[in-house]
Amino acid sequence: MYPFGKGISRFVPFLLLLIPLALYVLFYFGPSVMTVIYSFTNITNLPGSGMKFIGLDNYHDVFFSGNSGERVDSIIRTLYFMFIVTVVQNGIALLVAVIINQKLKGDYFFRAVFFLPVVLGVAVVALVWSMMFDPLSGPVNQLYQALFGYKDMFFGSFSHAFGYIIFVQIWMYMGYSMLIFLAGLQSVPKELYEAGYIDGTTKWQSFRHITFSLIAPSFTVNMLLSIIGAMSTFDIILATTDGRFNTRTMAYDVYKETFRGSLEMGLPSALSVVQFLIILVFVIVAVKQMRKREVEY
């Protein structure tokens, strides 16, 4: 029976849905469509300036303008960042989730500790690690000096700064991936492990054929979140190196071109569309492969 009565009351749920739908169109779908439109124009931030359709000129400038080499390097650096973060973050998160799922003493405490960086936010995390990696008085440099007789510039190093940003990214979001894996692990029926034990399976065989297969949906979700999050990261870079020392990524370039570059809006819009298309390709490939694995299991 329809729970909202008859007559005009039947339309109440649809009217209530208009509010979130309007907010979605206003703040998400609308700006996305306008970004695509702007990428084909010469629009600027100047008040009263006109907008003229210029075709693919902005996309040409992304790859072939005077500083296009830096943008290509940013794309390559972003792909490297995405690959390392996705693999390492999910690998560590899965390992930690498996350990915590063993019902160890204080497991709720460890869950909170590992998830804490997600709650802290980018500004706090960047401040903490900037202090930890201080090249003059930071504790990490003192540890390096004591153990290896070596000092580093950390976020001020052309060769190492990007690696430390990758470390901070993984440290911050590993707890989020861990909770998703943990939820998947806790949904695995205990009877399957008992049956495997009776059949003589080892712990590795039990993990590979029972645990890993049944948490495939959790693995898919974490892979997608890691890919999208890593490809969209610019806030940690902004707060630690501000794009210096070979740490610029596509997302940072979009931010810089939009808010701190020229007054043009067409070029950063084109760069945003290119970034979206790259993310879309990787997401489609990842979903296809992960779903195939879920079906196989």
UniProtKB/TrEMBL annotation:
Coiled-coil region: none
Chief location bin: membrane
Domain ABC transmembrane type-1: 75-286
Annotated TM spans: 12-30, 79-100, 112-132, 161-185, 206-228, 265-287
SUPFAM superfamilies: MetI-like (SSF161098)
Topology of the protein relative to the lipid bilayer: Multi-pass membrane protein
UniProt record, GO biological process: transmembrane transport
Subcellular location: Cell membrane
Family under the similarity heading: Belongs to the binding-protein-dependent transport system permease family.
Protein name: Sugar ABC transporter permease
